[in-house]
Design a protein that fits this description.
Strand order of the largest sheet: 5-6-9
Number of helices: 24
Strand content: 5-15%
CATH topology of the largest domain: Rossmann fold
Number of domains: 4
Largest sheet: 3 strands, antiparallel
Structural class: mainly alpha
Radius of gyration: 33 Å
Helix content: 40-55%
CATH superfamily of the largest domain: HUPs
Number of strands: 14
Length: 546
């Protein structure tokens, strides 16, 4: 019996060859091709968007192809709605693939773009390896492998299925065929020709030129349960046939590079360029650790949707950790987008990409502050309809009034920066709605003036003698100063500081009394604008219920 007999026994229905698939998926010429290849095992991770941005930039900056491939070979861990969540996340952030598969629709000529649908392609390549003696069935049980690992640990040797420990590689073809005919379960392993003691040069676009030990492990390339490949083999077949030119993936995969290099060499295929991105890390007390779906809610993209962060804020925050010079560049080029930036993989952090929510909030506040009131209205309303129905109802009752609230201190040279994400809005502006003002439990934040009799005297004098809704801002403030003079408060802060004992307080104290009376807050956006929007009748009503 020969290797071809063995291959035919294992794959009797596979009649296409590697050459057939080479013709079906021809080279693309000099086109740059990148791919994002998530596993549908749960929510989209922040690291997935982080890597997608890198893929997207490389492709779009070179007029290339950005591809989405669903890696669903680990079907035991697959989550039903995960593929939809992946598409939603990419669409939300404008990272639209050029080639993909969704709901049975295939866009592109290099699909299927779902690995479980490519089973016959993988098996044709594995069949070829068996025929040339570079792959074989392994009949070792889990107990056999556990025993091997214990023995290697005891001898303080490197663990793994390699060299003299790869006992099934020494079976004859006849023995392998007989085991299969007897119904013994098996996996398919790659037969390595490497020597762990030998080093080879490997170039990573982030880390530069490296020296790595050759792979000598006979690792599994096809599982026993469903005939699907492992990640290692699917990477070889898919990225070769799809003509991927850049493989962007986390640096945890760098240790697997020797396996992948040997696989590509076994077929005499050209290696793609590798971009091993630093892990996203965060500070926890005095320690630094990898961001985790289990521990950190901000690790999943649903966190940003639920909070209502603008998509550009999330992208900007990730760009600052993708390249160390991005923030300086964007400050100098405020009107350009991340696609105008000349991404350089060598400027990715070698020690991990530190992701900071405080930094995100700061960037987001700046971005939201520069938006037109109408744009904030539209974006926050769309968010509220999904995540805050009470706010959506308040907006529905009077959309133009809501937009006017958002426009306070907005479209000016130095706009206010108090909104980091749209989930903050209700708590920031609830007092502007009469129904909320009446129904909420209120705590008035009185400051320097706390005597309720004095407070009421200030307010009634102000509303009865000085407030006029038709006043411009300068006239309004001058009247507040007149109120100060009448009631014994300093209308000039400088004079008050020179002789504080001469006055009950100053103009800031008077303004605070008015502010707190109508909002309950001692710190709000521009008081003049708030009073104009509330109107005299509502101001008077709020004063009366004190």
């Amino acid at each position: 019996m020969t290797n071809k007999d063995l291959a035919e026994l294992i794959f009797p229905n596979i009649d296409k060859t590697v050459e057939d698939y080479e013709k079906m998926y021809p080279e693309r010429g000099n086109v740059v091709v990148t791919r994002i290849a998530p596993s549908p095992t749960g929510y989209m991770h922040i690291g997935g968007i982080y890597q997608s941005i890198v893929d997207y930039i490389i492709a779009k900056r070179n007029n290339g192809v950005f591809m989405l491939r669903i890696e669903d070979t680990d079907q035991k861990r697959e989550v039903k709605e995960a593929v939809e969540l992946i598409h939603d996340a990419l669409n939300t952030y404008g990272l639209i693939p050029d080639e993909y598969e969704e709901d049975g629709k295939v866009v592109g000529n290099y699909g299927p773009y779902v690995q479980s649908e490519r089973k016959e392609i993988y098996q044709a390549f594995i069949k070829h390896l068996i025929e040339i003696g570079r792959a074989y069935p392994c009949f070792c049980t889990k107990e056999d492998l556990d025993e091997l690992r214990v023995m290697q640990d005891h001898k303080k040797q490197r663990t793994g299925y390699y060299g003299k420990y790869a006992k099934c590689r020494n079976l004859t073809v006849d023995e392998m065929i007989n085991n299969i005919k007897e119904g013994k379960p098996y996996v398919i392993r790659f037969k390595s020709m490497g020597d762990f003691e030998h080093k080879f040069k490997f170039h990573d676009e982030v880390k530069g030129d490296l020296e790595l030990s050759e792979n000598d492990e006979d690792f599994v390339i096809m599982k026993s349960d469903n005939g699907l490949p492992t990640y290692h083999f699917a990477h070889l077949v898919d990225d070769h046939l799809m003509r991927t030119t850049y493989v962007v993936r986390g640096e945890e995969w760098l240790s697997s590079a020797p396996k992948h290099v040997e696989l590509f060499q076994a077929f005499n295929f050209e290696l793609p360029k590798y971009v091993h991105t630093p892990l996203i890390i965060k500070k926890e007390g005095n320690s630094i650790r990898k961001i985790s779906k289990r521990k950190d809610p901000e690790a999943t993209m649903s966190y940003y949707s639920e909070h209502g962060y603008p998509k550009e804020a999330v992208i900007e925050s990730l760009m600052t950790i993708i390249n160390s010079n991005y923030e300086e560049w964007h400050t100098e080029n405020p009107d350009k987008t991340f696609l105008d930036f000349d991404y350089n993989p060598t400027k990715m952090s070698a020690g991990g990409a530190y992701y900071d929510l405080e930094k995100l909030n700061s960037l987001s506040k700046d971005i939201i502050s520069k938006k037109k009131a109408h744009d904030v209205y539209l974006e926050s309303y769309e968010w509220a309809k999904k995540y805050n129905l009470k706010l959506a109802e308040l907006i529905d009752n009077n959309p133009s009034y809501y937009e006017s609230i958002l426009n306070i201190e907005r479209e000016q040279e130095k706009p206010r920066k108090d909104i980091a994400y749209y989930a903050m809005i209700e708590d920031l502006i609830w007092y502007m709605f009469n129904s909320e003002f009446d129904n909420r439990e209120k705590t008035y934040e009185w400051k320097n003036v706390t005597d309720i009799g004095e407070i009421k005297n200030i307010l009634h004098t102000y509303i009865e003698k000085y407030y006029d809704a038709n006043d411009d801002k300068d006239t309004w403030f001058n009247k507040v100063k007149e109120l100060c003079d009448e009631l014994g408060y300093a209308s000039n802060i400088k004079e008050y500081k020179q002789n504080p004992d001469k006055y009950k307080g100053n103009v800031a104290d008077i303004s605070t009394v008015i502010r707190v009376a109508v909002t309950t807050k001692s710190n709000t956006p521009d008081l003049y604008e708030i009073l104009k929007l509330l109107g005299k009748d509502e101001i008077l009503r709020r004063i009366e219920i004190l």
